[in-house]
Amino acid sequence: MAVMNKIALFFVVLYSGIILSNTYLGENERVQSNVVIFVLNGFAYIVSAIEMEKEKNQLVENRSTA
User: Fold this and answer.
1) What is the DSSP string of 1-15?
2) In angstroms, how far is CA 45 from the centroid of its own chain?
3) Count of Cβ atoms closer than 10 Å to residue 41 Cβ
4) Cα–Cα dist 27/66, whole Å
5) Fewest CB atoms less than 10 Å from the CB: which of 5, 7, 10, 64?
6) How far apart are CA 28 and CA 43, in angstroms?
7) Contact yes or no for 10/36 (Cβ under 8 A)
8) N-term to C-term CA, the chain
9) pLDDT by 10s per residue, the chain, length 66
10) Positive or negative, the Cα torsion across 16, 8, 3, 62?
């Protein structure tokens, strides 16, 4: 899961760079579609980070009860 989290972060950074470059190039329609992709990838990254924290907490609880 940690690898997937890093891959998601990579794509969030990559798409934010694409959005910035397209904004300066003046391609408004493409920028709008990239913003949607950026938001979806950011949401996926946040959800995966929350899931990792839940799994980490469950592991800590299992170790403390064992």
Assistant:
1) -HHHHHHHHHHHHHH
2) 3
3) 19
4) 58
5) 64
6) 23
7) no
8) 24
9) 567 767 777 777 777 777 777 777 776 666 677 777 777 777 877 877 788 888 888 888 888 776
10) positive
CB 27 within 8 A of CB 49: no
Q: How far is CA 27 from CA 19, 21, 44, in A?
A: 10, 9, 26
Q: Which of 63, 21, 15 is nearest to 39 (CA)?
A: 15
Q: Which amino acid is at 28?
A: N
Give the sign of the dihedral formed by CA 4, CA 10, CA 46, CA 65.
Answer: positive
**Cα-based distances in Å from 13 to 19, 30, 45, 64, 66:** 10, 17, 11, 37, 40
Instruction: Show the tokens assigned to 47.
Output: 């959800």
As given in the structure block, the two tokens for residue 44 are: 């996926």
Does the CA dihedral 18-20-23-28 come out positive or negative?
A: positive
